[in-house]
Predict the structure of Aminodeoxychorismate lyase.
Amino acid sequence: MTTQRVPTATTTWVDGQQADALPLPDRALAYGDGLFETLLLAGQRITLQDYHFARLGEGLRRLGIPDCMTAVREQLAVACKAVTHEHEFSVMRLTVSRGAGPRGYAPPTDAIPRIIITLAPLSANPWVLSSPADLGETAVRWGKQPLLAGIKHLNRLEQVLAAADCARSGHDEVLMLGQCGEPLSVTTGNLFVCLGDKLLTPQLCDAGITGTRRQLIIEQLGAACGLQVSEARLDVAQLLAADELFYCNTVVGLRPVSRFRHRRWLRHPVTSALHGAYVGWLA
Amino acid sequence: MTTQRVPTATTTWVDGQQADALPLPDRALAYGDGLFETLLLAGQRITLQDYHFARLGEGLRRLGIPDCMTAVREQLAVACKAVTHEHEFSVMRLTVSRGAGPRGYAPPTDAIPRIIITLAPLSANPWVLSSPADLGETAVRWGKQPLLAGIKHLNRLEQVLAAADCARSGHDEVLMLGQCGEPLSVTTGNLFVCLGDKLLTPQLCDAGITGTRRQLIIEQLGAACGLQVSEARLDVAQLLAADELFYCNTVVGLRPVSRFRHRRWLRHPVTSALHGAYVGWLA
């Protein structure tokens, strides 16, 4: 494990300038009218940048926010240069707001998107497999909303409420179901079920976020580890019958589940293999 | 109609101080983690204040945001004093954010809510019945999410998308359905159907916002006009069969519908009577 220099402060840029405040009015504040990405930096390099940009672009199109990908790339490049140690890991949050606008839900036709970037140190080493998680449950379900499913927009109260529930429960993470009781995700990441040589992950056509790590596993890592990956409608019984469970997100990478209801999992060979492939892919 | 002085600028306060920017980080920006109210001021007086405070209080409880109603009342009182003409109408937006917090969905247990207030002139006179609206339709449906239904939280992308659709269509407003195709509201207000001496309004247990004007009509104005008011699951056929349709919100009050699909409504006696009772109640 590399020795890490841990910067102490978060740095924020608004439209390319270091700042500690957001100009008002702003539609992201008013209505959650915008998108975000949580980025893992290895040194000055954004990992899985193409996957993040693809999802962000899809979000801009779905919300009808003017294409600002060129400005996003330019401003991210400036912010990345603030990382001074090549062996340092950082978490960057990129927020794209539709920007200013008059009162009312209707977006201005001449909106100028606003780009907010924060950079903070990451003390954990994402190349090391996280300790297995004790998975609880929450009564907070994802709402059903196909028009917003998949993209990483700023309307995230469901996960806020579920995460509050998780913190109260003392579990490491909690399973979030959809409106029909189907497992969809945990509060901070996507869920995978290992069953023999099959790898299943919930379909996210009605709710949830299509994570960048989820996409990489579906498109690359599963096959690289000899697994058949598919998106499916799951039920809780399949989770309990799984050989392994894990979840994934940008910050933790892949994290195995050690416990869910009465089930215990002591070994995680498939998750470990996928994690190895993941680190190899990114490093 | 009273002559109105129309102030030109919007004034903004953040935590009681005039400001033009929001300190960062802020969870309302990050996740839409907060609530708002749109208030109609007649002179320095907030109309239907008790209804607004009741809904805001319910929202704080549901989201687990610390009770900040005392600070809200104090800061609103200061902002109201900025209105200098007693015959002036203004629109005030009150936003309560959960405030600052570290990265991640889980809300800090020691959150200090942040209060943002904006005050802007209203050029229309809300005591005069609005011109009847041409009601269109939108493919943007409300998501199903019982945990967030009713309260006026900051996750408002569904209405943003529907309002964008409305603007493109050229209609004055558009009907928003729920996930099962049931009429729930228009983009900016609550819907009412008049049928003989019955007044029906959609149940909002799965989606939508329980408007203050809707509550006043249900609790007071309907009976005052000899109408039986009830919340019900409606279908589009009932709208087409209605004697009258109207919608209501804080800024326009009650607004009759002149047209929906093939139906035209030329007279609006029930809506006019309710509007008269509404103005009498508020003035």
